[in-house]
Structure formats: C-alpha cells, structure tokens
User: What shape does this take?
Amino acid sequence: MYLKSSVSWLLLAGVLAAGCGSSDEASSNGGGGQSVKGTGGKGGTGGSGSGEGGSSTGGTNSGGSSVGGSNVGGSTAGGAAGSSTGGTAGNSTGGTAGTNSGGSAGTSSGKDCTSASQCDDGNECTNDSCSGGKCLHTPKNPPETCAGGSKICKEGACVDPGCGDGILQDGEECDDGNNSNFDSCTNECKNAKCGDSFIQPGEDCDDLNEDDSDGCTSQCKKPGTSDGKTFDPSGDGSQGVKLDEKGNIIIDPNTAVSKVTKPVIWIANSAEGTISKIDTQTLQELARYCTAPGCHGDPSRTTVGLSGDVVSANRSGRSAARIATDEVNCVDRNGNGLIETWKGSGPVPPQFQWEAGQPFSPDECVLWWTDLSPYGGLVRAAGFDAEIGEKGELSTYVYLGIFDTGKLLRLDANTGAVVKDIQVPGNPYGLVVDKDGNVWIQALSALVKVDVKNGDAVSTHPAQCMYGITADSQGRIYTSGYGDQCVRRYDPSTGENVVISIPNNGGGVAIDQNGHLWTGQPHGVRIDTNTMQILGTAQAGGHGWAIDYDGFPWSIPIYGNYTAYKHDPNSGSPYSNQVAQPGMGTYTYSDMTGFQLINAASKGGIFRKTFQGCSPDTFFQSLDLKLLTPPNTATTVSIRVAPSVAELANAAWKKVASLPPDTMPIPLNVSGGALQVEVAMKSQDLNASPILSSITLVQSNCGKN
Assistant: This one.
C-alpha cells in the first residue's frame, strides 16, 4: 500500500480468501453493451442480441476500448450481428450494423429512409441518422444536456443529474457512470477505500471496523496475507514455528528449532581420530572428517546445536572443532570460489587429511579448531546451549568440561574462543542443558548445576547411577549407571529421586518424543519416564544413545568397528534394528543428533520474512509488529539489509528489539534494496508461545507520492 511518501508492507496472520478480486460489468441495454471503466460490458442476450465489449455476435470490435463508459469506434465488421426485432445490437434484420460515433450503439426503427431528416423520432436525447436505408437512433449521453439545461441525456432519456451520470459534480469524489460498489468509485460517488463495507479489488474483506483480531484486519486483509501471500512458517529460513488456528505465527514444539534440523547423526570414531556424518534415513555415510591437526584427536564426545552443526570434544588432542552440517555454512578459506570438502564414505582421503601443526583443516566445512591444552586435562563433557544470539545465530555458546582440572569452559560457538572458565566440583564427564538454560554436569562423584542466568552459581546435588546424563522438557535430570546397572530420575524442583534397576549396564542415555528413555549395553532397554517402568528391550544396545530426526533411537557400541544400530520401536520387544557403518573404534555417548538439546531445552522458533525494496536505495523507516508475549516467553527482533535479496545471506544480522521490554514501532532508519526480518521466539512454558499476528514495514524514497 503506497503512503504519501512511503510504502508500507503489511504481513498478517490467517487464511487467504479465494476469488477476492472483482470485475465491473455493465448491464446489457438498448445501446448494445456499454463498456465501463475500460472493461467490455456484457451485451444483452436473446432478443437484445447485444455484443460482448460493444461488438455483436459474429463481428469483431474495432476500436474496442471503453472511455468514460462508451464504446469508441465500435463498428462491427464481418457480417450481420444477430438480428432482433427492435433489437439493441446496432443492427436490424437484413441491415448492417450502425457505426457508433457518440458512445452507445444505435437502434433501428425499421423505417426506410434516404436521408437523416426522414428519421426524426422527436427525442432530443437521440441522434437520428439514416444508415443503409434504415433509420438509426443513437442515444445521447452526458455531458449532453436536455432543453433548458437542467437535465442531462443518459442512455437516450432526459434525467436529473446525479451520482452515476459520469459527470464529476460538486460534492462528488468520483463518478464513473455506473452504480457498482465494487470498483474504485462507489455508488455514492466516493473513492473506494478499506472500511466502506464493499470488497474492492486488492481487498480480501471489509467489515467496517479497524479490529485486527476479528478475521478482517484494518487493512481489509484476511489474517496471514501480504500482497496476496500468507504467512509461510517454513519460508526464508524460518524454523520451529507454525500457524495457529487463526493463522498467527507461534512456536511449534514438534518441529524445526524444536526438532532435529537434519536427518543426520554424528558418530565419533575415536580410534581413527574422525567423525562420521551418517544419513539416518538411508543409513549411508555422507562424509568423514578429521577433528584435529594430525588426525589423532581421539574424539569421544559430540554435541549438536540448533543449527545442526556439530562440535567434537577431542580427548588426546585436548581441543575442540566445529563442523558445518550444511555446505552453505562452510568457509572458502583459500578464496578460490569453491567449497572444498570431502563428501563420501570411508577413510578421509589424503587431500583432506589434517596435517600436524596446521591450525586449519583443508576441509572447508571444519569451521574452527580450538586448542584447550592450556586448561590442563582431557576434554570430556560437551554440550551446546539452546540460546538464540543477538545476531540471530542458533546456539550461542558451547560448553566443554575438562576432566582433570574440574573446569567448565564456555566457548563462543561461532568462533570457538573461550569466553569463560568456571570451576566446578568433581571431574566433568558429561553434561546437559535444561529447559531454563542451566548446565548440569555428571562429574562422577557429584551432580553439579551451573545456574547460567544467576551469575553461573554452582551447586551440587545427590549423585547416583552416574555415567550418562540427559534431561526432559519438565526439567528433570536422568543419569544411567555403567557398572551399577541402574537409571535415576531426579527432579530439582521437588528433590524427588527415583532409581530403578535395569538388566544390564547403562551408559549413554536419551529420551525420545514420547517421553521414553533408552539406554543399555549390550542390549538396550526402553523406560517410561513418568512411571519409571521398563517397557521393553532391544536386540542390540550401545555405550551411546541418541534420537534421530524421525524419532528413531540409535545406539553406538563402545569401540565398535564400523557398526551403529538404528532401532525400530514399533517392531515389538525385543526391538529389531538396522546397521549403519561409521568409522573404526566408535566411542560416544553424548548428543549425536541435537534431539537431546532440543527436547530438554526451552522451546524456540524463528520466523523470517524477506522484503524487496521499492528501489535500490530504499529507506526502511520503521517496523511494527503485532505481537503477544505471555509470561515465560520472550521475543528478539533482528534485521539484515543488503543491496539485493540474493545478497541478504551474506549480510550481518542486527538486533533491533527485545520484547519485552521494547515497544512498537521499531525505528530502523537503514537503506538498501532488500531487508529481512527475523522474529526469534522463546518459551520456558510448554503450553505458552509468543503470538505474531502482523508485520508492517514502512519504506520511503520510492519515487512515488
């Protein structure tokens, strides 16, 4: 919608109405089908025989456009036009069609003539002529007046002037010569606008009010439409959001940021110093990467962030590396315009072997490597957070535990730089992030909580069945003992501690989308986390467990050679499995897919919308969101601007608002050819979500007034 000196785009929530556009049609009449507003009027049928758009059946309209409601040049060619008795097709029986020089097509009286003087019918509102030996009477229309000038001629009759006569008079905003309310001029001769109760072209609805919550917005749009388009919860890189029943954008607890982003599992091959990237649907190895210089880093933990990228914790290498899951996020370090990365199964080929002493991998999908040897000891525990950064990045930090020195390191997940080290009791062996963003560490002799939002305050809690660790969406912490064959559920909010025995060793532990816990080696067990009852057993098991994109549990044998198991929970106990082939000497029992993080952490989603400027140097003035933020929810709004839509992907995000406490509208005052808006939603309440109903972007410098 163009404003006086700016442009406002409106994006709203809801369902797009079909067939909203309307076209104008004049009724058929004795004048042979008058055209209205440049659209061919429908001619009469049957006895009238009037033509479509001023042309008669069997003929073609030469001239064919309408001006002010009358047909210009509208003579027919190509034969008789469909005769009628006293018809209105501009043609009498046996005659030829009359030429319309005044506007509407003429009618024949059937009277023979040799001159126009013989055809006077006494009506001052018709032009009388002789054509083809027959008298032809063509109606006069405004602005011609009747005798005395107080009345005007319209369709061959003297009538009082008024709205709909085609003449703009005092008090009228427009007059298009018709009585339609569904074009740009209403039958009260007012310019059509949203709020006049009539649905004009470009409007989806019109309910005479400015209430945006009643199914028709103050912009006469059904919720969810912008330039005829609805909210797309998966467009422009959006994830973790969906449409509610009214078409608003809300967090979707079952998808995107709240679900594993890719059907990929990352398996550490400790014995060969690599990580295998395996497609969980096809079971094919997609790639294999060295995780440290010399390719002998002994990776033993993997953690997957909201973006799907993985960080490897390397024991003997005393380091960590981040690997991109999507090639679009890899880095062209040598500047040759290509992303050079190994894609295939089997050992890492020579050209991608990471030589000792080199800080960067030759594989350009290995994003960074950080030497952690100054912190003194083996890198064991590893876990991303679920925070969305100020620039829109997913998983702001990654946490790594140093086993020998009892340090928890917080790293910038984007760069790998150590931001802070926190001293904790015991020896960090595994960790998980809960729904409130707290880090829980399985430190063998202690269960440790680091309260991230309270100055990283450290507290200890009862330790039992200590080895693997995970959390559920209610904030309960689970551990699975390796040697003592037990599983424990601990609720920090109540202090409740429930321990059950399992028929074999525990180890790594994972909770699926149904609230069922999987653990155990050499055979797995399935446990209901609410009742803490064993539901069944698996034919195979593993030291590590994870849940994949489709909700299937995977287990990884300790120091297994080329073996990983995908279990079928629908096959009946003992559950059957399929076998995938990673590298040699597998050893991992942390989060290999990202499901653990997503299932346990606070729920989140991102909605993105791209806007193209009205000119290359569009001035984006302000942004207005209609957004509800219930208790325990929050929203961050960011933008990025570029010369074109194609260049947005390389532009930096800029945070422009946090809701609460910021208010609308948000001043932007930036220029460019395209702008992308990101609305990042968070909720610590499973039953609550921010609700986005509309986005309005105001731009100027469009060359329009």
